Amino acid sequence: LSLILGTTITISSNHWVMAWTGLEINTLAIIPLISKSHHPRAIEAVIKYFLVQAAASTLVLFSSMTNAWYTGQWDLTQLTHPTSCLLLTAAIGMKLGLVPFHFWFPEVLQGSSLTTALLLSTVMKFPPITILFLTSHSLNPALLTSMAIASAALGGWMGLNQTQIRKILAFSSISHLGWMVIIIIYNPKLTLLTFYLYSLMTTAVFLTLNTIKVIKLSTMMTSWTKTPMLNATLMLTLLSLAGLPPLTGFLPKWLIIQELTKQEMTPTAMIIAMLSLLGLFFYLRLAYYSTITLPPNSTNHMKQWHINKPTSIPIAIVASLSILLLPLSPMMLSTI
């Protein structure tokens, strides 16, 4: 309830203090969810998360106070002072886990359960992205573009040598954030569309992993014996997350590259498209492990054969949408 309340306060507020209050409620609401397993790893993740979010919230408040001091405005959309814009970009980058403020995010995700990791990757990113959306007209394009390209590069590069699936999905999130942030000044609605589609695909992946109880690559190799159909769907969802046509994930990347080219930023579009190939490699590896391969050596995990789990309607819906939404792209485009 607090998560819903905090998110609602932030996205519907017009005053900086109310937006900050919503962010604080959100942070305090997620802390018990991360730490409920009482494992030392989870407690460590909570402390890292709390310290980073507290610092970011302080920066948001400092930025808005500086802006109010110079302009007399507490309105969210009236962020005009250059120092305030710079501080806010740093604060939101810290909240989201953008490079160079990304260090906490993979660690916190690794210490959380799959359900909490899903909340951290989707719901918790919505309020900061909304603040970026509302202040996008006054932010620094060069700073945002460089942070976005660095995020896409590091998200792809660091995901290559991971064996823990939560860490791979954390770096995938950092990479997708780069795509969202690079376009926010030129077409903010396209950023929201990208975020919605990313949330949909990530939800499908996390819910599937939670059902088949897989958290690392070695157990993923034997998961095809448990639920063959669900694994096939997981492979397609991962390829959609990678942005391969004709799956849903291709749509935001296509539109962002098109918009960057319209803005005469062809070199930037080319760089970020090339960097997404790094991400494609580890998505392909995940997809390959989930369905195609037998383990190359004997694993320590007991193979289970066809678990008779009840059919999960939410997984079926989000997986179908995250794979088959591309034909509906004209309808989505008309709404933005």
Structural summary, described in words:
The chain has 16 helices and no strands. It has 336 residues and is an all-alpha fold. The protein folds into two domains: 1-113, no CATH class; 140-335, no CATH class. Helix 9 runs antiparallel to helix 14 (266-292). The longest helix has 32 residues, at 40-71. It starts with a helix and ends with a helix.
Short description:
The chain has 336 residues and is mainly alpha-helical. The chain folds into two domains: 1-113, no CATH class; 140-335, no CATH class.
- Given the structure, what is the number of helices? 16
Average of the residue pLDDT scores:
90
Order of helices and strands: HHHHHHHHHHHHHHHH
Inertia-based shape: globular
Main attributes?
single chain, 336 residues, mainly alpha, 2 domains, 16 helices
Architecture blueprint of SSEs:
Blueprint: H1 2-12, H2 16-35, H3 40-71, H4 82-96, H5 104-110, H6 114-121, H7 126-135, H8 141-159, H9 165-183, H10 188-212, H11 217-220, H12 228-242, H13 250-262, H14 266-292, H15 313-324, H16 329-335
